[in-house]
């Protein structure tokens, strides 16, 4: 410990002795780290696993069920129809399953003069909350998947409309229909929102109001993102029938398959389903069954943020340049003090002691570079959010992330100090003193 | 100093020189690639839209009650809103539309020439519904046939954009031809409808009533030049006075819409430009400190050279040319690296090849920056007193 | 060859002024071998530096080869130095990363000689100092005496009008010192003008003329006439 404080003082003394070269080294190192951190933050949020405990069991099945013959159409649509969801739901293999889509509407409290408030809605089925681990604060999910005038609110929506969360049994007017609240979710978020990647909604907040699937079809509530109709029905009329029977594609469907055996069984189920549909003449397109795991879903729907990917490549290169540079500068710095190094070794300092000094240098540099790099990363993130607004939800720092960044800063500082120090401490003694 | 001596002097400091080379190479690679991305973003943003961006205003609307979203109530509501807007001073023309040009999303469908589906089918073409006044509002030029009239409403006739007509009929007759979307009665000039449709200038104009407002609808307003901001301020109140149960979204000028259209490209290009700037800065710091440190190390050598008759400009040139040689070597490696980086980036982005002229310009830029950064240390080197430097300790 | 009149040099710091050289008058004729001696701090190095145009002076005049140095630009001085003066330093001052050949060639490059001429002159100079076989060695691979001979070759290669030697044997043992001195004497016999700073009285005595400097003032020169006469006669 005594040694450490001595090393620390010496370290600071060396900085003070040649502040400009040191400052330049530090600036370069922190610019590189700052750019890297800012990108790593975005990249982390974009690519993290939002449900590490069960993401590997969540799957998105797709069947090529469009009823127009097309031999070259090998890939199923990105969205499913009511009929698709119904057919796929006829399996007991998944431990949970739900069809769903995002919609929007206007909600207000009954018996008040308040104007309508726009809200985001997720139309879904009872297993949704189990699939994505959405925790209930009050109440619970619907008893079954039948139509019912019952809503589940997100924590934020409960506060927005009622100013409190314990609102079970209260009523809410949504697009002119009166619903009873049967559940309130805790303050829950899922980032990235992988259940709705196929509409490019991965970095939007989870919905405020959850509405039963069958109710939405009864009332003609449709998705406000991607919808496709593949026949000539008029979906503006009698949606309760047309929406259910027609080729109106708008939904996601997720199943929970806990074991590889279940996953195989489910694939088999999909194959059997398609085979029997073909027999019945309802599946004219080629078999194109797909079962995407949740972690592959962004890639499967080609919804990765390409700009961010490109920036990632470049920022890693940039960090490399800065590391090269800083180590070059620091080499200069150490070479300048090489004489002193040799002198101290001549005076009996062992290599080990010198290395202790060097490691202290590494620590001091690492801490300083880390702090500066964080400052720089904040600036970079502000700039990136400004330039690519789609990334503005991604700039949170968690303690774990910060710790990781600190580790990277230390490692960078170590790399930058290692070679130069090695050069300085291992150069032949007499050669230095003689010169 | 001769080339061989220069090289020898660089080879003496292998590691430092290698570090310098690597970072110069990476810098050049990044500069060249961000420049080409910036150039591409500019090209995209500067392409003609066929629209008078500065005079057009978009008002997104959605009734908050389901009964207001379907016909015939909806048609009546839109008519009342439009006549209120047209009464606002500064408004030249106003139309309802199911979707706004420039924006992603909306109603898209396929179209083909009847009996030629196999050869003419186009998968994703914007179906543009709107008032008959739409042509006036958007300033579309009629190229063939006639535009839609009130009597066409809800009949099976369509007007198509020039680009779509070319694709569907090549050089053949267009007017009177039957397509899956209706009989073509006219062709209008192109505008930038939807960037991600099969072609960004495809459009079908249909004389249909808005079937429902489940997804909302748009009011598009053309103002007299310079009147846009005044009109924008007044519209919310005017529309509220017509009907309270309609949610009025954010009013945006078409110029604003156009800026957001290429935001991811311009954003990335700007970001990379900032990064290139930082990288140049880092290269300059590096060149500066390298020359400075090197100068100090070589004081004695420089002193000897001065004593042997090297003039100050000559010493300066020596220090600079060492910098130049390093930069040029690094930059040539950088050119290879730039091409490799371009290939990597092209995997994730659509991106044109690097023109040689750009590589040359990047190289010159790098050379200039390094020269500026080396200038001061080089001047310091020339100040070395030969009398002192040649003295023994 | 060298003609100095009323030369003064003052060193100024914030606190004090030191008169380094005081009204120096000195002439060196073509073919002379002049030894300059004096105690430490007497100003002999300053005088040598001024003679070598490495340092400026405050007043007086210095004519080198009939040309006044006063008021010349740095570039003109560099060119003058390169063409007319050959330096031999106590610490040799060879560039350690250049080969013997490159070291000797360096001033010729500054002169702008063609590659062929440079090669011829370097070979000649190497021949003269007896190191022709070592042209591709690095200075570090040679003994001190050999290094000084390389330095002499470098000074000679440009055919200067005068050799300025600053304690050329100061870093050498006696055997090597004698070899270097013999080389200088031989060069002098061949017509080379030499001005040498030394504090070895023996060497000073062997020079054709002995000039002493004390406290920045030149004392009467001790002239060994016979030697000069001999030199001139040759």
Which class of secondary structure composition applies to the elements of chain C? alpha/beta
Task: Note the gap between the termini of chain C.
Answer: 18 Å
Mean pLDDT value of chain B? 88
Shape of chain B: elongated
How do the SSEs of chain C run, as a string of H and E?
Answer: EEEHEEHEHHHEHEHEEEH
Please write the string of helix (H) and strand (E) elements of chain B.
HHEHEEHEHEEHEEEEHEEHHHHHH
Shape of chain C: globular
Residue windows where pLDDT falls under 50 for at least 5 positions of chain C:
223-234
Number of H- or I-type helical stretches of chain B: 13
Level of helix content of chain B? 40-55%
Rg estimate of chain B, integer Å: 32 Å
Mean pLDDT of chain C: 85
Helix percentage range of chain C: 25-40%
CATH fold call of chain C: Rossmann fold
* Greatest interface (CB-CB under 8 A), with counts per chain: A-B, 49 and 52 residues
What structural class is derived from the secondary structure elements of chain B? Answer: alpha+beta
Give an account of the 3D structure.
- The complex is a heterotrimer of chains A (435), B (393) and C (234).
- Chain A is 49% helix and 16% strand.
- Chain A has 435 residues and is of the alpha+beta class.
- In chain A, helix 2 packs antiparallel against helix 10 (306-336) and helix 2 packs antiparallel against helix 13 (399-426).
- Mean pLDDT of chain A is 87; it is low at 429-435.
- By secondary structure, chain B is of the alpha+beta class.
- Helices cover 53% and strands 15% of the residues of chain B.
- Chain B is built from 13 helices and twelve strands.
- Chain B has helices spanning 3-12, 14-46, 73-86, 117-120, 134-138, 162-169, 228-242, 254-261, 263-297, 299-307, 312-348, 356-382, 386-389; strands at residues 56-63, 91-97, 108-111, 122-129, 142-145, 157-161, 178-179, 182-188, 204-206, 217-223, 246-248, 252-253.
- In chain B, a hairpin with a 2-residue loop joins strand 7 (178-179) and strand 8.
- In chain B, helix 2 (14-46) packs across helix 11.
- The longest helix of chain B has 37 residues, at 312-348.
- The radius of gyration of chain B is 32 Å and the shape is elongated.
- The relative contact order of chain B is 0.18.
- Chain C has one domain (2-233): 3-Layer(aba) Sandwich (Rossmann fold).
- In chain C, strands 3, 6, 7, 8, 9, 10 and 11 form a seven-stranded mixed β-sheet that branches.
- The radius of gyration of chain C is 18 Å and the shape is globular.
- Classes of the chains: A alpha+beta (435), B alpha+beta (393), C alpha/beta (234).
- Chains in contact: A-B, B-C.
- At the A-B interface, helix 2, helix 10 and helix 12 of A face helix 2, helix 9 and helix 11 of B.
């Amino acid at each position: 410990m005594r040694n450490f404080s001595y090393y620390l003082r010496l370290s600071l003394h060396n900085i003070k002795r040649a502040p400009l070269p040191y400052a330049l080294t530090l600036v370069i190192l922190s610019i590189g780290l700052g750019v890297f951190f800012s990108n790593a933050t975005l990249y982390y949020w974009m690519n993290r696993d939002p449900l590490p405990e069960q993401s590997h069991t969540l799957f998105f099945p797709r069947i090529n069920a469009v009823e127009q013959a097309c031999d070259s159409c090998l890939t199923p649509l990105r969205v499913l129809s009511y009929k698709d969801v119904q057919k796929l739901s006829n399996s007991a293999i998944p431990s949970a399953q739900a069809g769903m889509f995002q919609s929007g509407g206007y909600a207000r409290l009954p018996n008040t003069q308040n104007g309508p408030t726009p809200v985001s809605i997720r139309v879904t089925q009872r297993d949704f909350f189990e699939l994505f681990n959405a925790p209930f604060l009050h109440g619970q999910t619907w008893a079954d998947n039948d139509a019912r005038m019952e809503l589940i609110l997100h924590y934020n929506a409960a506060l927005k409309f009622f100013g409190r969360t314990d609102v079970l049994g209260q009523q809410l007017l949504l697009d002119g229909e009166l619903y009873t609240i049967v559940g309130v979710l805790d303050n829950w978020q899922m980032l990235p929102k992988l259940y709705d990647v196929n509409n490019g909604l991965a970095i939007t907040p989870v919905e405020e109001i959850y509405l039963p699937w069958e109710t939405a079809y009864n009332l003609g509530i449709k998705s406000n993102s991607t919808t496709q109709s593949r026949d000539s029905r008029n979906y503006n009329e009698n949606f309760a029938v047309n929406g259910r029977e027609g080729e109106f594609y708008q939904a996601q469907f997720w199943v929970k398959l806990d074991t590889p055996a279940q996953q195989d069984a489910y694939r088999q189920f999909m194959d059997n389903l398609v085979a029997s549909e073909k027999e019945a003449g309802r599946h004219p397109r080629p078999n194109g069954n797909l079962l995407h795991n949740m972690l592959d879903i962004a890639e499967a729907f080609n919804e990765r943020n390409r700009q961010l990917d490109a920036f990632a490549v470049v920022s890693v290169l940039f960090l490399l340049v800065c590391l090269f540079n800083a180590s070059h500068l620091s080499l200069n710095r150490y070479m300048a003090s090489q004489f002193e190094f040799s002198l101290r070794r001549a005076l009996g300092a062992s290599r080990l002691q010198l290395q202790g000094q060097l490691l202290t240098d590494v620590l001091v540099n690492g801490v300083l570079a880390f702090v500066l790099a964080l400052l720089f990363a904040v600036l970079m993130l502000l700039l990136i959010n400004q330039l690519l607004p789609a990334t503005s939800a991604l700039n949170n720092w968690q303690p774990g992330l910060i710790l990781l960044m600190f580790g990277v800063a230390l490692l960078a500082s170590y790399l930058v100090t290692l070679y130069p120090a090695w050069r300085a401490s291992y150069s032949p003694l007499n050669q230095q003193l003689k010169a | 100093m001769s080339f061989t001596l220069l090289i020898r002097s660089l080879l003496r400091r292998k590691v430092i020189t290698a570090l310098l080379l690597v970072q110069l190479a990476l810098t050049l690679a990044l500069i060249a690639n961000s420049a080409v991305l910036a150039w591409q973003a500019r090209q995209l943003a500067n392409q003609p839209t066929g629209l008078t961006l500065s005079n057009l205003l978009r008002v997104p609307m959605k009734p908050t009650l389901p009964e207001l979203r379907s016909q015939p109530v909806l048609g009546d509501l839109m008519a009342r809103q439009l006549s209120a807007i047209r009464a606002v001073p500064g408004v030249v023309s106003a139309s309802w539309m199911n979707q706004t040009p420039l924006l992603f999303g909306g109603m898209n469908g396929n179209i083909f020439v009847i009996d030629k589906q196999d050869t003419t089918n186009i998968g994703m073409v914007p179906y543009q519904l709107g008032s008959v006044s739409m042509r006036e509002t958007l300033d579309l030029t009629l190229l063939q046939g006639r535009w839609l009239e009130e009597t066409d409403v809800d009949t099976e006739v369509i007007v198509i954009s020039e680009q779509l007509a070319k694709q569907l009929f090549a050089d053949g007759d267009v007017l009177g031809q039957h397509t899956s979307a209706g009989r073509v009665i006219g062709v209008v000039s192109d505008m930038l409808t939807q960037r991600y449709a099969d072609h960004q200038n495809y459009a079908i104009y249909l004389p249909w009533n808005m079937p429902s407002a489940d997804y909302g609808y748009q009011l598009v307003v053309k103002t007299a030049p310079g009147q846009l901001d005044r009109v924008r301020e007044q519209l919310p109140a005017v529309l509220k006075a017509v009907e309270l149960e309609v949610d009025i979204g954010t009013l945006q000028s078409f110029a604003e819409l156009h800026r957001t259209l290429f935001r991811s490209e311009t954003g990335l290009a700007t970001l990379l430009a900032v990064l290139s700037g930082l990288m140049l800065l880092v290269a300059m710091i590096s060149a500066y400190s390298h020359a400075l440190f090197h100068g100090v190390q070589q004081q004695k050598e420089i002193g000897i050279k001065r004593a042997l008759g090297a003039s100050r400009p000559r010493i300066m040139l020596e220090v600079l040319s060492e910098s130049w040689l390093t930069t040029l070597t690094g930059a040539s490696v950088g050119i290879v690296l730039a091409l490799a980086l371009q290939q990597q980036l092209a995997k994730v982005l659509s991106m044109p090849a690097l023109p040689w002229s750009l590589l040359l310009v990047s190289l010159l830029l790098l050379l200039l920056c390094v020269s500026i950064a080396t200038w001061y240390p080089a001047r310091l080197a020339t100040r070395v007193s030969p009398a002192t430097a040649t003295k023994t300790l | 060859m060298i003609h100095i009149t009323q030369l003064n040099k003052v060193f100024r710091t914030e606190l004090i002024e030191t008169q380094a050289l005081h009204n120096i008058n000195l002439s060196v004729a073509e073919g002379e071998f002049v030894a300059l001696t004096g105690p430490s701090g007497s100003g002999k190095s300053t005088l040598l530096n001024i003679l070598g145009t490495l340092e400026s002076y405050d007043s007086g005049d210095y004519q080198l080869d009939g040309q006044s140095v006063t008021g010349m630009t740095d570039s003109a001085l560099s060119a003058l130095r390169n063409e007319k003066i050959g330096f031999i330093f106590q610490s040799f001052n060879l560039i350690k990363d250049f080969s013997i050949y490159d070291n000797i060639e360096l001033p010729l490059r500054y002169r702008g000689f063609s590659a062929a001429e440079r090669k011829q002159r370097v070979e000649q100079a190497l021949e003269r100092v007896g190191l022709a076989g070592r042209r591709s060695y690095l200075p570090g691979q040679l003994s001190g005496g050999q290094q000084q001979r390389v330095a002499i070759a470098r000074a000679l290669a440009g055919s200067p009008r005068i050799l300025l030697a600053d304690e050329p044997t100061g870093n050498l043992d006696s055997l090597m010192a004698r070899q270097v001195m013999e080389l200088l004497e031989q060069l002098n016999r061949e017509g080379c003008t030499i001005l040498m700073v030394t504090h070895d009285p023996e060497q000073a005595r062997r020079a054709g003329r002995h000039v002493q400097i004390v406290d920045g003032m030149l004392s009467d020169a001790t002239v060994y006439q016979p030697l000069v006469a001999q030199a001139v006669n040759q």
